[in-house]
Predict the 3D structure of the following.
Amino acid sequence: MTRDNNSHSDKANPGIKPPPANTVGIIGWIRKNLLGGWVNTLLTIISIYILWLALPPLFDWALLNADFSGSSGKECTTNGACWAWLDQRINQFFYGFYPPESYWRVNLSLILLLPALAYILFENLPYSKYGRWFALSYPIISALLLLGGAGLEVVTTDKFGGFMLNLVAGLAGIILSLPIGIVLALGRRSKLPLIRMFSIAFIEIIRGVPLITLLFVAVIIVQLFLPPGVSLDQLVRVMIMITIFASAYMAEVIRGGLQAIPNGQYEAAQAVGLGYWRSMRLVILPQALKISIPGIVNTFIGLFKDTTLVIIIGLFDILGQARLLQTNPDWMGKVDHETFLLAALFFFIICFSMSRYSINLEKRLDTTNK
Amino acid sequence: MNENSAVIEISALNKWFGNFHVLRDINLSISQGERIVICGPSGSGKSTLIRCINRLEEHQEGRIVVEGNELTHDLKNIDAVRREVGMVFQSFNLFPHLNVLDNCTLALIWVRKMPKLEAESLAMEYLERVKIPEQARKFPGQLSGGQQQRVAIARSLCMRPKIMLFDEPTSALDPEMIKEVLDVMVDLADTGMTMLVVTHEMGFASQVADRIIFMDEGLIVEQNTPEEFFNNPKSDRTKLFLSQILSH
Ligand SMILES: Nc1ncnc2c1ncn2[C@@H]1O[C@H](COP(=O)(O)OP(=O)(O)OP(=O)(O)O)[C@@H](O)[C@H]1O
Ligand SMILES: [Mg+2]
């Protein structure tokens, strides 16, 4: 549009010229980003050289010279990757020991996640009122689907495994750690000394201890304090600890955002009669969370990767499945790289998506330059 | 002065920041429709005084009664007072994440529980009064300072307050924008709004004010009509202040 305007006014306004051709378009981009100055040019050449060294052999190994069929590692005879196990094991990498006849329950709950997420992340979708309710009830629906009960066959959490376990634990943590983090961050800035001290103590203690220590506490020590006969599911304990751990970091990320909001915002909200909670919800938090998006997503990504620690309660998430296969006599010594590569790929896809979405969200929420 | 006609009644007000005695024995009674300009040197407690009136600051001694509600720790009374009192800040304090219209309707919808459409048409009415209805869909960051301050005035007026507080509403503005804001304030004064304005705009003060209050070091040193205040200041401190401010 602006371009149109320019060309129209060209005749009337001889001073207006289009930018020089070598500063726009692909050539302009290359000149500016890859060849701008001799340092950039040198870095570009080195990068291309490294890629040229690394990519072709990787490609050969992973695909061209790879073995794709066979029932054990012995049948992988080329010097490429051994993918023969995929056929037998891919389901286990994804669903763990979940009963195969009930895989559809996992699938369904993952499919339902998409609309639930969409209704949370995007405004202006059709039927948004029902959509919000659906999104709110999604955790219950999916817990029911995954665990069974109410007519569905019960599946205990020790059957959970593979990437599905990472997804379930990660999502639960993500959904819960944000609100808990917000409450802790507000608590830390509260005027009431008791609430403030509790928040500070909670945040600092949790942040001051390695996650793995917290998990051992949850798994071993908590049992000592529970009344006899009461037992808390091991997976639930681990998920609680991962969530709490992420919440403490989340609280500090959000506190940083809160501190960036000038006091005048709060005062203006008070002056028009919004009380504390409404001021927070409608004025302060929307701004503070927006500033904190990079840190929040960073915490989400960290939390998601920490779900691999479920291995300490003997559950086999996707990394556990990789280790399991690596120690399987049939495949031993043949699949070390391949299984880890697959696990890494799964994690990368999810984490990279989160990161891209957050960048998109930041752009969408930017009101300074619309 | 007749006790009943006073919409704001401040008596024996004292306030400290730590050990610093910022407001000292303030007595002030403001009646319905009165326009008051408060001036005085920097740090004299002008902002603190008007911020006490809608409880952005808490006072430690004395009484503040606004429209029959005494300001105490009782949140109900504070809410009641804030319903009657609008405030405009030096730094506008618009909500940057909301567009102009949403800035105006936020409290109408959430505090007054007004339906969205009704709130929007009310907000448009006030945006027209401050002469920027065409900016309704823009974000504060896209407006000039003068426009932002007029939005801030409209945002307060939407809540239909009986009293408006202004804390140096034009001090953060470039000279050419000061007039557009002052014009809106003069219009508002013509509607009979009770106004307390902290400002150094002496032209505005002499045109609009019923009473000028001069503060120094936490005290009300002098209060008088504009003519008396400018032509016949009583205290030496007032004279000094006036000579400084008028020599600019
Ligand atoms: N929150 C606070 N804590 C401590 N001291 C404060 C606080 N707010 C204001 N003060 C002090 O109280 C005094 C009065 O401040 P106030 O803002 O009321 O002055 P003012 O008359 O509005 O001045 P100005 O013309 O500069 O706005 C100043 O000395 C200021 O430093
Ligand atoms: Mg001030």
Q: What stands out?
A: DSSP finds 14 helices and no strands in chain A. Chain A touches chain B through 23 residues (CB under 8 Å). The radius of gyration of chain A is 26 Å.
